[in-house]
Every structure is written in structure tokens, then in C-alpha cells.
Design goal:
single chain, alpha+beta, 3 helices, 7 strands, binds ligand K1U
């Protein structure tokens, strides 16, 4: 088991655009295991490789109550989105303690490779759909606070930088 450090907003590395995973090999298998350990330890429902400073298109998710249904999406693509959107309360392990509303598609279909390198289509609604969209944004270098007003985002940035300064003394 390895826990990976999670980058905190406004770290500029969270803005990097992730590259395609070329092969699902032993290195990727180890990264998946470490990301799942890190997500469960942090009590998150998802984690994108970007958040652990790996700029490759890989996300892990578990929205189950029992925390026993891990989902691995490698090179995910949205192949269908619902017409309707909904405002959902979101949080982010890279922006600890901040929760706010973001509009997302109610339902999405995503094509991705699983942990064995097999192509799969995931049909998602509810929290899973929200989480897939949130994590795919991370792979594009976008953090959910970028949907908020400049005023709110500025306040969050100041709060995060202050918390970081206080941690280092
Ligand atoms: O990407 C991340 O930082 C993980 C993030 C995923 C997420 C949560 C909520 C909506 C969309 C995406 C989290 O897991 S934040 C912590 C959390 O467990 C949580 C927060 C709000 C609602 C449900 C769960
Ligand atoms: Zn996040």
C-alpha cells in the first residue's frame, strides 16, 4: 500500500492537461492500486491522476456506500451526455473544506479502458455521473472552483494559501 501526496489548489500542476495512457502495464497497475489506496484513505469518492502529479488520463472512482466497488477509467471519453443539467454540491480532495454548487449533465456515457486494458462503456447518472465529469475536468487541468464566480474563487485561493503557510510554520 502506498499513499500518494495530493496536490492542493492553487498548485499550478493541477492545470496541466493529461496525456493518453499508452499501455496498461505494471507501472499503470501499481499507480491504480496506489490511487485507490489514496482515495479511500482520504475518504474521497474519486481521484484523478493529475491530483497526484501524474499527468496521464487515469481516474479511480468508488461511489458505493460500502466502499467496495472501485471503478477504473483509463483514457475516458464522454460519448453521450443528457440534454438536461443539474446543480450539484461538489467537493474536491485538492480543495479541502470547500463545497459549492456546479452544473453538470444529469447523465453521461463514458468509454474507457478498465484496469485490464479492456474497453468498456459506463452508463452513469446521479453521483457517479457528477463524479465522472468532475474527474475528467481534472484531466483537462480544470478544478471545480473555476466554475464559481471570480470573487468566490479569489476567496478560496486566499484561504488555501493561508492554510498552506500556517502548515509550514
Ligand atoms: O476529485 C476529487 O477531488 C474527489 C472528490 C470527488 C467529487 C465529490 C463530490 C462531487 C463530485 C466529485 C471527492 O471525493 S470530495 C469528498 C467527498 O467524498 C464528497 C464530497 C461531496 C459529496 C460527496 C462526496
Ligand atoms: Zn477534485
Amino acid at each position: 500500500m502506498a499513499l500518494l501526496p495530493i496536490l492542493c489548489y492553487p498548485d499550478p500542476r493541477l492545470q496541466k492537461v493529461a496525456k493518453t495512457v499508452a499501455t496498461v502495464d505494471a507501472r499503470v497497475t501499481t499507480l491504480i492500486a496506489d490511487m485507490l489506496d489514496t482515495m479511500y484513505e482520504a475518504s474521497g469518492i474519486g481521484l484523478a491522476a493529475t491530483q497526484v502529479d501524474v499527468h496521464e488520463r487515469l481516474i479511480v472512482i468508488d461511489v458505493s456506500e460500502e466502499r467496495d466497488q472501485p471503478l477504473v477509467l483509463i483514457n475516458p471519453e464522454l460519448i453521450w451526455t443528457s440534454e438536461d443539467k443539474h446543480l450539484n454540491e461538489e467537493g474536491c480532495l485538492s480543495v479541502p473544506g470547500i463545497y459549492d454548487g456546479v452544473e453538470r449533465f444529469n447523465a453521461v456515457h463514458a468509454r474507457a479502458l478498465d484496469e485490464h486494458g479492456q474497453s468498456r462503456v459506463i452508463e452513469a447518472d446521479g453521483l457517479l455521473a457528477v463524479c465522472i465529469q468532475h474527474e475528467m475536468d481534472h484531466l483537462m487541468g480544470k478544478v471545480f472552483v473555476e466554475y464559481l464566480s471570480p470573487l468566490k474563487r479569489g476567496r478560496i485561493k486566499t484561504k488555501m494559501l493561508k492554510a498552506r503557510r500556517e502548515e509550514s510554520v
